[in-house]
């Protein structure tokens, strides 16, 4: 009889613990917060911005890292692993922004080189005109 009372009492206790855990997010992982969703959206936007400046050409390794972390975030969202999702989203955005910055810098370097060539040609032409009789 005592064994039966203990079993019933334990069953009731475990039921209420499971019930409480369900509503506190202990039993099941809590959902992705709106702020974390925004981080993911920002990462996708940063990746798109990097693509728009041809970062695949100028910073392929950073683009690859950004794409891999974005995929990791997608996978973490399905599990759901909120910490992994957030971390991967932030890293994806950081790598995408780095790729974009490197691409813009390389584009500017190319423009600078072209401008320098034009400047040298103009100087050479000026010297030729000066030396003409």
Average pLDDT: 84
Q: H/E series, N to C?
A: HHHHH
- Gyration radius, rounded: 30 Å
Number of strands: 0
The number of helical elements comes to: 5
Q: What kind of sheet is the major sheet?
A: none
Helix content: over 70%
How do the strands and helices of this protein lay out in sequence?
Layout lengths: L1 H23 L9 H19 L2 H4 L1 H19 L3 H50 L2
Helix pairs in contact: 2-4, 2-5, 4-5
Write a brief caption for the model.
This protein is an all-alpha fold and 133 residues long. It has 2 domains: 1-30; 37-131. Helices cover 86% and strands 0% of the residues.
Describe the structure.
There is one protein chain. The chain is mainly α and 133 residues long. Helices cover 86% and strands 0% of the residues. The chain folds into two domains: 1-30; 37-131. The protein is built from five helices and no strands. α4 (60-78) runs antiparallel to α5. It starts with a helix and ends with a helix.
List keywords for this structure.
133 residues, mainly alpha, 2 domains
């Amino acid at each position: 009889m005592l064994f039966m009372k203990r079993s019933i009492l334990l069953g009731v206790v475990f039921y209420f613990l499971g019930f409480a855990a369900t509503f506190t997010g202990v039993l099941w992982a809590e959902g992705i917060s709106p702020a974390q969703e925004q981080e993911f959206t920002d990462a996708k936007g940063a990746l798109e911005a990097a693509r728009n400046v041809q970062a695949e050409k100028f910073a392929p390794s950073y683009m690859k890292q950004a794409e891999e972390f974005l995929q990791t975030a997608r996978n973490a969202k399905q599990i759901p692993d909120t910490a992994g999702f957030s971390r991967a989203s932030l890293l994806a955005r950081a790598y995408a922004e780095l790729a974009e910055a490197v691409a813009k810098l390389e584009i500017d370097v190319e423009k600078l080189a072209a401008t320098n060539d034009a400047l040298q040609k103009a100087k050479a032409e000026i010297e030729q005109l000066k030396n003409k009789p």
